[in-house]
């Protein structure tokens, strides 16, 4: 504090003195700020302690964050017990089912909102409350760029429900039952019953979809309190994690534990390792690439594929396995998994507790017998859940979640059945005159970052009805889009470059032969270069544009999947490191 004038802050100011809005007179700025905070009923004592921002993403449109109010109360309790001043503030909230045209279209907007609110409002540390798929990546991206001490609080998973004595949970079972309904195995009445049971409480999807994936990744990154990934949304464990998170945020403010000390190359590598070992959502790669990109760290897909070959899937959760998030929590949560993965992790990576990941694994104790996390000797799947493909159809790479693909289709050559875009697919997929056989390959164009726009999760192309009623459960599908982490099938995603900017995918025609070889890590279009050049010249692709608004910003600046689908101007100006090594 300035000795002559206690109203004037120095550059190390904290609390409400931090980051004064300039009216050309710092003393007056603080005077005004105090007047308004007193207008809210606070006394002067509130000014002389760390201010901890709490990003409140509660929204009636977001049932996955339906416990936000209770979480905020617990976080505030933790902050005040530790001597800080809690200040919650709203940001955009994104829910998967309520975000048109797709939640991914809004992720970068939420990251900008988060970053700029952290920059704008006086706060010495920030608690990020996120859960639903895009929220945690958006918050970590924004906080990474803002640079202050930040800690992630996950909202937690929903409870599982029960349909006619069968345990169900969103959203792998949503798809399974919808598939049965489409195949006319269950009737209108039963599908309505299922609908009541799939989401049994507030909280995020209960399987290893993107929300659970990002929760586990956040803990693996060291960005949560240990044990912060798995407690279900409505439990006392979740509320205690919230209280601890608030208290830890105050310590982080006091010790200056900024986010760059946690989000290091080692931490990103640990997170990639965990992504593979949990059979995590393919979306996790895109989000981690975006988060790492904010820190100037590039994710090398080829190296990731090598890492996958030596990382078994250990977590027995749907859709790769059989359990749900609440079971993982009862089995000890991430500590159980991290203990098993220890030989493959960077144990010196710093976490938000001020202790290293290795120290936290030790502190969690020896573990106990359980059947949700397998040992490395008896994995669910011998290799990582995700394989990276390359070939003339995807010069910039593509991915497949091999752990939830049909083993019989992973080496497959077939004839392309092409859909030009999502509307065309919706229009024709169920028609009786669709010319398709079970050994064909469905190709969907124009659902990449710029194509849809927003790279929607339309990559999970449904089995055409005429095949579904014949009992066909899987078919090779290829697109430049994403798929929900709760989906399953032999599905090639994130084909880069996308068709909307003229990637080879744009020029695939009905009847072309395509070869998928997961063993060779290859996705090949068996059409000559000359023929491709001819097609390119005959009907060149014109990339989409928009006249104004967020859509213009999006189409002008969004990057491809291999750069995390972040806006180019939000990524770090240069990439200093590449992971995994
Ligand atoms: Fe929010 Fe699944 S819809 S986590
Ligand atoms: Mg999802």
TrEMBL record:
One of its GO terms (molecular function) is hydro-lyase activity. Keywords: Iron, Iron-sulfur, Lyase, Metal-binding. Residues 49-359 form the Dihydroxy-acid/6-phosphogluconate dehydratase N-terminal domain. Gene3D superfamilies: IlvD/EDD C-terminal domain-like. PROSITE patterns: ILVD_EDD_1 (PS00886). Residues 371-564 form the Dihydroxy-acid/6-phosphogluconate dehydratase C-terminal domain. It comes from the Bacteria. InterPro entries: Dihydro-acid_dehy_C, DiOHA_6PGluconate_deHydtase_CS, ILV_EDD_C, ILV_EDD_N, IlvD/EDD_N, Sugar_Degrad_Dehydratases. PANTHER family: HYPOTHETICAL DIHYDROXY-ACID DEHYDRATASE (EUROFUNG)-RELATED, HYPOTHETICAL DIHYDROXYACID DEHYDRATASE (EUROFUNG)-RELATED. Belongs to the IlvD/Edd family. This is Dihydroxy-acid dehydratase.
């Amino acid at each position: 504090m300035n000795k002559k004038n206690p109203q004037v802050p120095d550059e190390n100011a904290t609390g409400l003195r931090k980051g004064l809005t300039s009216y050309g007179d710092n003393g007056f700025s603080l005077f005004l700020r105090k007047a308004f905070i007193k207008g809210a009923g606070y006394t002067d004592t509130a000014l002389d302690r760390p201010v901890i921002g709490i990003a409140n993403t509660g929204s009636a449109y977001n049932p996955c964050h339906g416990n936000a109010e209770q979480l905020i109360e617990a976080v505030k309790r933790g902050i005040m017990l530790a001597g800080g001043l809690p200040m919650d503030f709203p940001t955009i909230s994104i829910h998967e089912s309520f975000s048109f045209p797709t939640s991914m279209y809004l992720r970068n907007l939420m990251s900008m909102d988060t970053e700029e609110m952290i920059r704008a409002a006086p706060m010495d540390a920030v608690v990020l409350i996120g859960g639903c798929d895009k929220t945690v990546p958006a918050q970590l991206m924004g906080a990474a760029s803002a640079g202050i001490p930040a800690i992630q609080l996950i909202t937690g998973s929903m409870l599982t429900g029960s349909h006619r004595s069968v345990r169900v949970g969103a959203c792998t079972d949503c798809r399974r039952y919808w598939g049965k309904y489409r195949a006319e195995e269950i009737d209108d009445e039963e599908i309505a019953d299922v609908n009541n049971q799939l989401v049994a409480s507030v909280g995020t999807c209960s399987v290893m979809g993107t929300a659970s994936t990002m929760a586990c990744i956040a803990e693996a990154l060291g960005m949560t309190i240990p044990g912060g990934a798995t407690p279900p949304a409505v439990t006392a464990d979740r509320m205690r994690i919230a209280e601890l998170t608030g208290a830890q945020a105050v310590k982080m403010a006091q010790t200056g534990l900024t986010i760059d000390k946690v989000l290091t190359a080692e931490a990103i590598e640990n997170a990639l390792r965990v992504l593979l070992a949990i059979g995590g959502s393919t979306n996790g790669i895109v989000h981690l690439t975006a988060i790492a990109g904010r820190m100037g760290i590039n994710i090398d897909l080829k190296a990731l594929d090598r890492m996958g070959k030596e990382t078994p899937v250990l977590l027995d959760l749907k859709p790769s396995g059989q359990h749900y998030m609440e079971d993982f929590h009862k089995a000890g949560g991430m500590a159980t998994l991290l203990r098993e993965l220890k030989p493959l992790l960077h144990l010196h990576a710093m976490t938000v507790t001020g202790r290293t990941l290795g120290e936290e694994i030790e502190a969690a104790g020896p573990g106990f017998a359980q059947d949700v996390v397998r040992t490395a000797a008896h994995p669910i799947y011998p290799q990582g859940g995700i394989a990276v493909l390359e070939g003339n159809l995807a010069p910039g790479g593509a991915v497949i979640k091999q752990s939830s693909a049909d083993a019989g289709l992973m080496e497959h050559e077939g004839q392309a059945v092409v859909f030009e875009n999502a509307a065309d697919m919706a229009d024709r997929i169920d028609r009786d005159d669709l010319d398709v056989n079970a050994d064909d390959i469905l190709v969907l164009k124009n659902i990449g970052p710029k194509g849809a726009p927003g790279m929607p999760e339309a990559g999970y192309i449904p089995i055409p009805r005429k095949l579904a009623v014949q009992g066909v459960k899987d078919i090779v599908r290829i697109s430049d889009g994403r798929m929900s982490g709760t989906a399953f099938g032999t599905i090639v995603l994130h084909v880069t470059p996308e068709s909307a900017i003229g990637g080879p995918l744009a020029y695939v025609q009905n009847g072309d032969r395509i070869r998928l070889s997961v063993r060779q890590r290859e996705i090949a279009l068996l059409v000559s270069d000359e023929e491709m050049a001819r097609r390119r010249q005959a009907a060149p692709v014109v990339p989409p544009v928009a006249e104004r608004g967020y859509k213009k910003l999006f189409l002008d600046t969004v990057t491809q999947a291999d750069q995390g689908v972040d806006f180019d101007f939000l990524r770090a100006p240069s990439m200093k490191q590449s992971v995994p090594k």
